[in-house]
Each structure stands twice: as C-alpha cells, then as structure tokens.
Design brief:
The chain is of the alpha/beta class and 308 residues long. It contains 12 helices and 8 strands. Strand 6 and strand 7 form a beta hairpin.
Length: 308
Amino acid sequence: MVRSVGFFKGVCLTAAFMAALLSFPEIASGKKEPMAGKARGVDVKARTVAAKIGMARGTWRVPFNALAQREQRKLDRPLRAMVRIPDNVKLGFYYAKNYGIELEGEEPIFHITVVTDGSTIEIEDLGLKLRPFVGDMFSTTATFQQILALAKLRNVVRIELCERFKPLLDESVPKTSANMAHALEYSSGTTNDGEGVIVGIVDSGIDWSHEDFIDDNTGTSRILFIWDQVDSTEYTQADINDEIDGTPVGYVAEVDEDGHGTHVAGIAAGDGSAGSYPGKYTGMAPKADLIVFKLNQWTRDEIRDGVA
C-alpha cells in the first residue's frame, strides 16, 4: 500500500512538470525570452534610475550575439559588458556616471578612443567625425551601433570607452606622490616643494588676489609678474603687493574672466590655503613663484611671446 501511494505521487509530479513545460514552450525548448511585463519593468526602472542621478531618461538594448567572440575582444571591459549584459540597467547607468556617455534621448552617445592598424579604410564611411590621430589612435563620439560596426572592421584593433575625470587636487597630488616629495628635505637644505622655482603660465590670466598665491608668512604675492595682453599692461610683484595691502587700490586691473588660467596656476603652484579646508587642495609646487602671461586673441604669436 505504501509503495502504491509513492508511485501515485511520482506520477502526479511528473504530470505536473510536463504540464508546466507545455504551458511555457520557451522553457521546454531552452530558449527562454523575457516576458513583456518584465521588459516593461526594466524600462520603468531605467527611467527611475536615470532621474535619480540627474540624467536624461532612456536605456539601450544590444543583441547578445551582436558580435563574434573575436570582435568582442576588441572592446574594453565596459563596452564588452554592455554587449554581454544589455538589459542590466544598473550597470549601464553606472558606466554613464563614470565614463563618457551622453544620455540625450533614447540613444546614448559614447566618447571612445579607437586604435587602428594605421589604416582608416571604411572607418570614415561610418559617418564618424575623427579627431586628430596620435600615432595609430583617434578619438570620436559614436552610437553603440557605430561601435559595433567599428569592431567588425579588420583595421580596428581596439575600442575603449573614455573615462570621465574630475578635477580633484586632493586626490591627484597624492596619486602622483607629490605630497611625499613635498615632505622630503635634503642635507643641503633644499626641498621639493617648489621653493626657488619659477612657474610660467600662458593662459587666460590669474586671480592675483586668490589666497593660494599669497605667502602665508609674509602676506605678499608669489606672483612675480603679470603681462596682460588685453591692454598690453605689465604688473610687477610690487604692484600686486600694493594692491593686496591697499596702497593703492584699483591699480592692477587684470581679471581672469575665464578662470582657466587660475585653475592651471592652482594645479601647478597653489598652496591650498584658501577655502574651508586649508592644505587640502595643494598644487604640485606650492612654494613656487609665478610669472603669468594673459592671452588676448589666443594666437600662436601671442603664445610664442608669452613663452619667450
């Protein structure tokens, strides 16, 4: 009797399993497709995630077999992941935050670097705007379909998704070990913090009143000279010091309206004394002096004059 009950249960379970296979033929055939409801859920999640990180709404889908294995090997890790895991919205938007991906509408634009075998045959036919070559490499922006097309070309060796960088001096200085160099002092008394060195800046000018360029001990400027090409005016360190201590006020009229020159000078020689966290954003040579040449028309002759 016990054996009969067990046999009956086994028959019932087998029948139930076969019924399930008949109800879901995609499982029986081994070709399970995402259900429509799940696909809609992915789209909703994509819009939600995109809104949270402040990006345009949208996602992308790439067929799993869009590229052969040898073509996939041309892609770097982020691009390869997008081919292999096309519906992973979380992964996609992680890359959008940390790599050069513009989400404008439904189709993203990717900032990529392409390595070739030296030939551009067929590459230009894809409608890409090729930036100047460096060796056998060039940069461009492309849709994912254009990236897939690039990967299929024989003269394309490698395709890399460009990382998105942030201007963080508090990280870049330690990563280059410049902070360790600052702490060194030789038996001769010399240091590696830029003291006794003059840094030249040929750019949009400088904010000469910025605390990062004023010596904390003396209260005087570390800017030795400013040549303002906008009105062909020259300012000496004495002129800048007079402006800082108010004797007189209004003489130094140079203004870095763009801000780029001040940014570059800060990376090179800012002492990090400005702001709420003194010393956090210290430049590479925080005790170096500066000579600044402010460009007007940004022409080659102006730049040459500044360097000379």
